[in-house]
Fold this sequence. Notes:
Blueprint: H1 30-80
Amino acid sequence: MASKKKKRPAAPPPPVRTAPPRQKVAGPSQRRLEMEAAQKAAAREGVRRRLVAGGLVGAAVLAVATYVVLDRRGDAELRDA
């Protein structure tokens, strides 16, 4: 009877080459700079919106006050006549 051939263990696979680790760049990352710029822009936009809204409210109050004053003057003229 013929003897069976013994299986030899397989050789381990060759090591996988990896890229060298990246060097840390001094200072904030590009993403962080972009986020800070976006936050500043949003803050500036908010201030601008508040100023515009305040101006519109002021103009409306001035218009109502002017109307009331002129209306009372007209009523006084009618009473005096």
